[in-house]
Q: What sequence folds into this?
């Protein structure tokens, strides 16, 4: 029985003391909750085949009364004629710092998950419950406009106009926030097999006015089947195509929707010939309520955040390739319906 | 000789006075001759309905909000269905909830229409047209 000084230092007990106690880590120093696992570990070690290394991490009481985590690796390298262990080589290391940072990490992860969930719930409740009083404000501002417009003077008409616009804008923000918070909320439906091509056809019908007005031409590959909720494909294609129309250059929009298989995923690409995005804004565009152009373009600035959240929900990713004036290509990945080909 | 039709008896179950006012405006806009009885919550509505049964005078239409204190709209709808007297009276759900569960459940409970209260004045006024159509259908069916 030999105990090296690293172990005795780590545990704060003298080497002689440990050697007298008769085991590299004496049972009486082991944390009660880990004692059974250690007994089991030693029993399994006796039954190992030669050369097989077993490892266990457990807590040991330091001389100062605190517990330290140790990693105990053992291997039987000599046996008695009846097969029992004659010599065991045990390597006991102090792994407390690593265990503490792991515990801290997992505590932080749990905390983050909880706070995300709280935030999601908050966003949902806030946007949902604020809609009703806002509806009163909107409708009654409109009523004021209808009944009193032109009667209270030009200035009053303008004020009412501001109030109506503000309320309408807030309503759009709340509605979008509600959509955003619902993407990952509980009870939001199950994925099914969705034909992206059929969804694209519906989206083009929805956007037909904007397509006609802008003279946009949308072409596409044969689009794949993916395994997500249909409403999510709809939101993705509608947001990305609407953006391609909205942020067009002087040319009529030419939009191409293509698909490429990447393992168990499909990568969809929506390419346009619009104004493009500056390199420094390529991450920013996916943030909530981020608008690069102020009020020059209509909308709340949540469309791409919705897209990013949908894609992330399925473990995919979304990014944009673009150069200013040279159009943009938004790429995103979604799980293929039929798994890996 | 033509006789003016009797004003339609409409029971409005609504706890928000601002919405009651808009509903009246919508009926005026669509020239629906009506006499409105307003119940400000579900319990109140059930009492009014009981009185209707006792008087033998049923409303021609019920406009029902869902989120109300004391007894909510679904509670009122369940009571209506249990009483059987109102099976032929159209019920329009008029609510700020757009939840698919609410739509499904009220349909199962026999509501004829489900309309989400619009936040645009013009669209809100449309409730007058919906009510008018349902009343005319009721009159046509009964004649």
A:
């Amino acid at each position: 029985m030999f105990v090296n000084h690293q172990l005795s230092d780590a545990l704060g007990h003298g080497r002689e003391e440990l050697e007298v106690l008769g085991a590299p880590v004496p049972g009486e120093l082991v944390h009660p909750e880990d004692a059974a696992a250690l007994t089991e570990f030693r029993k399994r070690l006796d039954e190992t085949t030669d050369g097989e290394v077993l490892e266990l991490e457990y807590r040991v009481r330091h001389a100062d009364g605190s517990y330290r985590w140790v990693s105990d690796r053992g291997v039987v390298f000599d046996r008695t004629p009846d097969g029992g262990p004659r010599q065991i080589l045990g390597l006991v290391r102090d792994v407390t710092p690593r265990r503490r940072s792991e515990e801290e990490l997992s505590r932080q992860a749990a905390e983050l998950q909880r706070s995300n969930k709280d935030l999601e719930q908050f966003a949902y409740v806030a946007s949902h419950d604020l809609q009703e009083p806002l509806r009163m404000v909107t409708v009654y501002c409109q009523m004021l406009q209808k009944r009193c417009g032109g009667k209270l003077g030009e200035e009053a008409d303008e004020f009412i106009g501001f109030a109506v616009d503000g309320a309408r804008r807030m309503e759009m923000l709340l509605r979008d926030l509600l959509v955003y918070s619902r993407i990952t909320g509980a009870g939001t439906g199950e994925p099914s097999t969705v034909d992206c091509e059929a969804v694209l056809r519906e989206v083009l019908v929805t956007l037909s006015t904007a397509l006609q007005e802008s003279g946009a031409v949308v072409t596409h590959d044969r689009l794949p089947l993916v395994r997500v909720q249909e409403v999510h494909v709809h939101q993705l294609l509608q947001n990305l195509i609407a953006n391609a129309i909205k942020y067009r250059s002087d040319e009529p929009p030419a939009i191409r929707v293509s698909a490429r298989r990447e393992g168990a995923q499909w990568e969809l690409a929506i390419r346009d010939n619009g104004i493009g995005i500056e390199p420094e804004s390529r991450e920013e565009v996916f943030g909530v309520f981020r608008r690069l152009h102020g009020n020059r373009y209509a909308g709340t600035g949540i469309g791409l955040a919705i897209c990013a959240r949908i894609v992330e929900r399925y473990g995919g990713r979304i990014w944009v390739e673009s150069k200013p004036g040279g159009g943009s290509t938004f790429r995103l990945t979604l799980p293929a319906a039929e798994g890996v080909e | 000789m033509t006789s003016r039709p009797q004003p339609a008896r409409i029971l409005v179950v609504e706890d928000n006075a601002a919405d009651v006012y808009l509903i009246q405006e919508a009926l005026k806009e669509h020239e629906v001759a009506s006499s409105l009885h307003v119940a400000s919550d579900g319990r109140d509505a059930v009492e009014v309905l009981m009185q209707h049964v006792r008087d033998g005078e049923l409303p021609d239409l019920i406009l029902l909000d869902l989120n109300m204190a004391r007894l909510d709209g679904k509670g009122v709808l369940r009571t209506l269905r249990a009483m059987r007297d109102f099976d032929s009276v159209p019920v329009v759900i008029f609510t700020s909830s757009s939840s698919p569960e609410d739509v499904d459940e009220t349909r199962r409970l026999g509501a004829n229409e489900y309309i989400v209260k619009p936040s645009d004045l013009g669209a809100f006024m449309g409730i007058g047209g919906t009510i008018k159509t349902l009343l005319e259908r009721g009159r046509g069916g009964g004649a």
